[in-house]
Predict the 3D structure of the following.
Amino acid sequence: MAKKEKINKEQEELKQRRQYNIDHNLPSEELKDIRKNLWLHNTLYKIMSLFNTISGFEKDFERYKFDFNGKKTAIQLSDIIYLESFLHEITIHTSSNFYKYSSTFNKMMSLINSTNIVRIHKSYAVNLFWVKEIYKEKLLLRNGVTLKIGKKYQQDVLASYKEYLLKWCIYF
């Protein structure tokens, strides 16, 4: 009986981690803190979207449309945390869910065509709003996920992030 309860508990924890797209290696205290603060980040991003709309940066708040499980699905670009590619399967990670569909990474990036979503690796692109810290070879997102920065993309990632920060310094 105890073994079954332990399995159920592990499955429930895994479900919660997937719900928030949080790295599975974080200690439970950090997970709780991240969950408490996710709503704050989302609210801040909604406020920033208002500034973007007013200031002419509406492109990032358009909707990206794709097929998901046989249905037409649309996600606001500002809700995307990061994009992941494996072979020809694209995974779009948002603060509340993730979506998988078939496409090439280059095709998806050209369809999105946003200055805030930047390619950092042959398999990853991130929304710069969600970047918490950047190191030479990796970056940490606000939801606790760590992603590797490809050597080929390091200079472009830093330049894009600096430009992004300067753009937002004007408004705050």
In short: Strands lie at 63-68, 71-76, 80-86, 89-94, 98-102, 117-121, 124-127, 131-134, 138-141, 146-148. Residues 19-24, 54-60 have pLDDT under 50 and may be disordered.
